[in-house]
Amino acid sequence: MQGLDPRGVTSAEEYVVLLRRVRDRSGLSYRTIAKRAGAVLPASTLATMLARRTLPRRELVSAVLAACDVRPAAVAVWLEVWERLAERAGDAEEEPPPETVPFQLPPPPPVVVGRADELDRLAAGLAEPQGVWLLTGAGGVGKSTLALLAGHRAAARYPGGCLYVDLRGASADWAPSEPHDVLLGFLRALGVRTAPHTVEEASAVFRSVTADRAMLVVLDNAGSAAQVRPLLPSGPRTGTLITSRWRLPDLDVTGRLPVEPLSTTAGSDLLAHLCGADRVAAEAGAAGDIVRLCGGSPLALRIVGSRAAARMVPGTLGAVAGHLGDHARHLDELEVGDLSVRAGLRVGYRSLVESADGLAATVFRVAAVPDWIDLSAAACAAMLDTPVVTVDRALELLLDAHLVESTTAGRFRYHDSVRIFAREQAEAVDPAETLAAASERLVAVMFSAAASATRSLFPHDPLPYGTLGATAQSLIPPDATTAQAWQWLERERVNLRLLAGQELAAGRSLPAIRDLGVAIAKYLDYAGHFVDQARFGQLAIAAAEALGDRLAVAQALNTLAIGMLRHERRREGIAMLEQALAVRRELGDRAGEAASLNNLGNAHRDEGDLDTALRCLQESLALRRELSDRYKTGSALDNIGIVLRLMGRFAEALDHHHAGLAITRELDDRIREALVLTNLAETEHVAGQPHDALGHAERALALSRDLRHDRGSGLALRLMGDVYASLGQTARARACHDEAAELLLQPAARTAPESVIRPARR
């Protein structure tokens, strides 16, 4: 190799620096040099002595040069210079100091709950040679706690010591630590007296010193991959734990461990440890609310637990839960001493504000203002009037900072605390008219997409789309299949309801809210989302009343009444339907009159008043035939068939079902066809025609599955189970009933437990 000439060296420090360059140019590890040199000294001692300012021993210099393939003549020159420097120093044979073994880990946390799986993964990861593990998650989720506990548990595996540093990448009050400063601190802890002038040289010395050590390095609260890279040891027996609230996708690591919020059980256990198990047991409901409102954040729970522990009055947890549920007080409740959820969120938000592209900060603020559960990137782009690809990049930054969560591909959501913080920032930064305009754009595009989806599902039903479809939308294809339309509404129905409620409270979009409640009522009924059906009815009634639209009030009453009927509140439902019928007759709304009569017939049927039910349904059928409404005629015929079955008039019932089925097939209404087939099969089953019933139920099941209509599939399976049971095929019956139970309970499980508000008396 090309030699480095030491003859111009004037000090021991310069001599060592030049000798290190020889080693660096060789590309050899200290372990390899030690082997080539015949193990004159251990590799770790070689590295330590070459990191010092004092002159190494003569045999060490000779061994290193020979191992690095320096020619003998050049080695002689090196040794001549060594003799000169040694004579000047008076004593070049200074023995190396004993190896320093630092242990810098802070004390382990006093209690950790619900993290057994994560600790097992870290233990297994650190058991592998040269493991580098990155723990990521939102602020306050417990990353540092996990890393410290894992480090203490693994410390015996690292006799070379444990280094720790808080990189302050998540500090609201301090600038992030400079890698050069951190490296100098590490080198001092390792007994290295030299102070390299650049981060590159300091990093090289650090890697040299730790090359043969069994050492653990914990880099807490990393702010970026660039901050971390110089601090990584490269020895084969080292282990590294890194924590960061950013995902650091540009950092190469052995493994990544996303740290999630605590489960409800673990959160309750932590709360019990902090403020007493007896208190948590006595106020179990409030404790559960606290865990939910804190989002399972250990930091938030520690703050709440500490505050509650200082107040031993009965009912304290209930009061705390009430304060957390109040958005105006939520973040104020999550502060105690120097612990603050708001301060932690400010760190992540500040990184967005200070970034070159400020769009992510704008998205973070503005998208939090409208009410929704989880939102698509396309809807967010429409709200901000920005291309989807641009919003996607901004959302990636928010995901990296754990300020939003990804629910499924292309969708995101806020935790409650984060949303409240984002709204605080929006109110402080963005003009009110800007926020209102963004909300109105989101509502317009979402309502328009809802109209497109319901039109795809029910192309023959004259639903009120006029005010809903006025805005161009790209959230659902205009030629969407029935299954696509169904799935879009399944994903967005709660968002639609929340947005409608927020707009109603602000006195905006009243015509659209009035029409939306009626337009999607049929989908909600078919899907089994009866709570939402009632709530949309309430919203539509309120909007119609505010507009002074009596006919629309009657339409909305019809929607709400069906929700009441599905909740077994038949008397209330019947009263609403009669009220709606009277208004429609007064205003000459013949189609509306037929609809109210049809629903009244079904309500009286469920009440057991079959004669009244049949009379109402026959009146509805006559009106629909008079209006030449083939679609609604098919529905009325099928409903009459159900009443006739209950009366025991099976032949007439079957005739009505077949007539209704023929119309649905004529109109190619596959959703309605599946339901009519199920009703027909049920009548055939009761009439003693089990094999015909099975055939029609199986066809209904196939149609419903193809449409991804869970409730339709559940109804068909339940009937098939009944038929199989009547045939003595117990195993098949049980299988059908079990699957049906899952499908029919699923919509209710997805419905938020909110009470249905009764409409004002008219």
Q: Approximately how much helix is present in the residues?
A: 55-70%
The average pLDDT score comes to 87
Note poorly predicted spans.
91-96, 746-762
Number of strands: 10
Compute the number of helices: 36
Distance between the termini: 99 Å
Structural class based on helices, strands and sheet pairing: mainly alpha
Radius of gyration: 36 Å
- Classify the beta-strand content into a percent band: under 5%
Main sheet record: 5 strands, parallel
The backbone outline, from C-alpha atoms, is elongated
The main sheet orders its strands as 2-3-4-1-5
What does this structure look like?
It contains 36 helices and 10 strands. With about 750 residues, it is mainly alpha-helical. α10 (about 225-230) links the parallel β3 and β4 (about 240-245). The longest helix is centred in the middle third of the chain and has 26 residues, at about 430-455. About 50% of the residues are buried. Residues about 90-95 and about 745-760 have low confidence and may be disordered.
Keywords:
762 residues; disordered C terminus; P-loop_NTPase; TPR-like_helical_dom_sf; AAA+_ATPase; five-stranded parallel β-sheet; 36 helices; mainly alpha; TPR repeat
